[in-house]
Specification:
The complex is a heterodimer of chains A (403) and B (287). With 403 residues, chain A is of the alpha/beta class. Chain A contains 11 helices and 18 strands. Chain B has a single domain, classed as ABC transporter involved in vitamin B12 uptake, BtuC (Orthogonal Bundle). The radius of gyration of chain B is 18 Å and the shape is globular. The chains are: A alpha/beta (403), B mainly alpha (287).
Chain lengths: 403, 287
Amino acid sequence: MQAITGHRIRRRYLALGVAAAALLAGCASNATPSSGGGATSSGPVLIGTSIALSGAIALPQIRDGYELALADANAKGGIQVDGTKRKVELKVLDNRTDTSTMLQQVRTLVVNDHVVALLGSCCQQNIDMEAQADSLKVPLVMGALPVELLPAGNGYTWDAFQSLADGANGFYATAAKAGTNKKVLIVTDNDAQGTSTAQLWSQLGKAAGYDVVAVKAVPSGTTDFSNVIQAGTSDKAQVLVAAMVPGDCFAMWKQMKALNYQPKIAIGLQCAQTPGWSSLGSLGNGTLVQMNWTQTAGLPDTAEVVAKYSSKYPNANDLGSVALGYAEASILLDAISRAGSAAPSAINKALASTDMSTALGSVKFTGNKSVTPTFLGQWENGTISQVWPAKGGGPLSPLSGLG
Amino acid sequence: MSVETLVAGILTGGLYALIGLGISIVFGVLGMMNLAHGEFVIGGAYLASLLVIGAGWDPLAVLPLAMIAMALIAYPLQRYLLTPLLRASKTAPLVATFGLLLLAEALFQAAFGSHPKSLPAPYAAAGIGLFGIRVQAIYVIAFALTVVLCTATHLLLTKSRAGSAVRAAAADPETAAILGINVGRVYAMTLAGAAALAAAGGVMTGVAQSFTPSSGLPLLLTGFAVMALAGIGTVGGVLLAGVTLGVLQSVAVALFGGGWSNVVVYLAFFLVLAIRPQGLFRRGATA
């Protein structure tokens, strides 16, 4: 009898433990302090962001870019609003890469803190954030989401970032120099962004004369890619496009090497952008990565970004993320200044007429999107060098890591 | 379904078993859900990275050091924090280990950054032939290590004097204390042992895959699933449960696609809890 009772008690604890574990992801958030202030306040103009600073994705670089733009504006006395110069303040909430936390935080920022505008996070979170901005009628300026992936909304979300199509076309043009059999394996995460990426890269690959022999979708956190590798091997795909979270690419690259799958050219969208890629050692050599910024591309404000953040972020992609945040915040601050008002509707209207030079290049919105330049970089011994386009780039090296 | 699918599932399951073993032991002996177990796993990987990435050591050489280090961290946690809480309330340690989870994640991020890391080794991306197919050497190593550690744990628990004390403390801590067993010390040694096993799993995970400060939670959930399948207090069952889970996952992915890998884990978990709560590999409880 005692055994049964003890067993039941333990079962209850087990269920309790699992329930608690399942709730962990959404249970915590960190915020930087803020005094608050909305459209009618005479204090600082408050903007907000719910951004992934911990969890599966961490983007302190983008936050640093936001803060750099605000520091620049405040160093000049602030921005012109309602006839007076007002300082700008940013309230940052860490959503721990959890979508429901992010949605709740965005609502809190708008409803409780009365932010006049929002800055984005990254990737799939930016897609999910759009509906929230639309329903709350607060302008949201974002990057880190290829323009093709921004769903049609109600006009409150503004995406200034590179185009997947540009990256895919650049990749296929680069792959033409690698002497492949033009057979492509595409593997992506199975979320909305992954599905869209697979469709677009398939279409553009076919248009560029490539044969997309296999398209695989895997959930984030996958560690066994044997069925994907089997498809690549049996279909003799020499061109690999992987669009996954970093950990998945790490596992897949190791497994590819172990199972002797040797594509001649490979790109790691999202995953190879992390500086952690260097911890793969020589295995990571030759992998291509799509970039929104390079130090050699001659983009505006490069010197400032490099001077202020190259010691904190030695990796080129990290600096690119700082530049991205700097550009996003600059676009928003420019719109607030031109609106001359801290009213969200006025800021949103001003964003539509944006025409400015940013750290990512020229920005002018058409249908709430502005395409910024795309670059391809290649990993070699822990550093990334631009290999496409030719201007500012160097020669393509073989995919030696998987060879 | 191919032989490759089955072998890949079995080998992956070995790693799952290594992660689940510590959770199962702690729950079996202390009756405590250790929500920080995934952090012990990742902690082992981060500790190993100090010598592997920092000083170029081989991960297998660092493995015993990482296990000892995690054990030394876990021992005082149990002795001076969790056991007093456990005596006050059965649920208090659950909350405490949740706090430890959050604390550890923040510490990892502050100390090591948020970017993924991987432990480089010559065998990390090497392949070997097994039953006529090619597999990742690191998963074979991890499987062999799991078998060794499961066997050692089983022998320790069933054949040694310390094991007798652990079993006595697990069965009836009050009587065990009357008989002169230092239950607090036994509990602390149990968590230390579980943390050492977790660290071994962490080093293997770091070599085979990668890790970030937030990698602990999915590993914890995998460990829970292994424990539920195995049943409490069966070391051999943990190994079988890990392998079962790995094979189920591998087969589901091969048959239905990648989206089913996690579905299978949680489906198995809840089905076993509902239908056979004592686990697949443990005899039913008797009155």
